[in-house]
Prior knowledge:
The chain has about 375 residues and is an alpha/beta fold. The chain folds into two domains: about 1-175 and about 370-385, Rossmann fold (3-Layer(aba) Sandwich); about 190-370, 3-Layer(aba) Sandwich (Rossmann fold), CATH 3.40.50. The protein is about 35% helix and about 20% strand. The protein is built from 14 helices and 20 strands. It has an eight-stranded mixed β-sheet with strand order 5-6-2-1-9-10-11-12, sandwiched between helices. A six-stranded parallel β-sheet has the order 15-14-13-16-19-20, with helices on both faces. Strands 3-4 form a two-stranded antiparallel sheet. The chain is elongated, with a radius of gyration of 22 Å.
Amino acid sequence: MRILVASHTYIVALNREKLRAIAQLADDIEVTVVVPKRWRPGGVQRKTIVSEPYQDGGFRLVPVANFSENNQGLLTFGLELIKLLREFKPDIIQVEQGAKSLAYAQTIVLNKLLGLKAKNCFFTWWNLPYQNQFPINWLERFNLQNTHGAIAGNQDGADILREHGYRGVIAVMPQLGVDETLFQPQPQPELAAQLNLTPDEFVVGFAGRFVAEKGILTLLAALAKLVELPWKLLLLGRGTLRQEIAQQASAAGIGDRVIFIESVPHDEVPRYINLMSVLVLPSETTANVRTLTAVGWKEQFGHVLIEAMACQVPTLGSDSGEIPHVIGEAGLIFPEGDAEALSDRLRQLMSNPEQTAQLGRRGYERAMQHYTNIALAREQLAFYQNL
């Protein structure tokens, strides 16, 4: 089977591991990944990344000249793509830029014109209701009518595709897995000592952006109700809310219990997660400030959850977006924005070490079964084979 995947996501080497794993599942599988030759992640003010070709057995990365260097929907590829498609003759073409992307329409048209007879697939994270206007409605209709299979990163995304008229095969799985050789249970006594964490302290952890929609202020309010218990809050990340977090923690009399760790290299993140007694993802769905009626954001997946699970750290999340589906029965859920409920869940874990340890074991088993790169590679290959 010859699989061609196109996405700006894979300009980052770390993000390619699932696709490399697919290529290693059998000798007759070849995976070619098309990435933009030049890309500016984060917008026009950021540094341009220039992609380099790479090959490892049946897996190869091919940078192709591109139009638009920072807009996912407008991304399209140059004439090199035609030559590549003619030579590779893929059985599967998957574009991971969403249902309304020009790049997906481009590959659909080239698939027809070149007579490749490949199956057209796309990946989407989009989990919010939306309405299209001309000409985007035509573009999405064309893409969906010519789709043989879709992968949604969350259940809401799958439901929205159905609402927009897609009746084909949909699989629900994340775009990226967790590296279990990096994220694994590993005590960190030296790091704990550096941060003045003692064995009797329950470490509540958060890793991610310090922004309102991540629910950190709700987490602070919940912990302020537990001052009689021995806990510390470890916040790993950065963002515009940092100063407000510090001010509110100080106002609540818990400022000395909050530890800020600026963003660290990805291979250092497991060390800090392994310090945590529980990882909390208290995300909160937000309203669109322009319309005040449409939903503006909700959690698409919560990758840090599966990183914590792989470290055998229990997870506690809100019911925003995909979080309950990711955690399943391997952790605890609370209603988003409800500080009282979150406080109750935290008290429950602090007061019951046996339950906390059991949830950690459940999460580890869930991550190993469903969320490693090799587990997702097998699932995605089965999806292709079904098509």
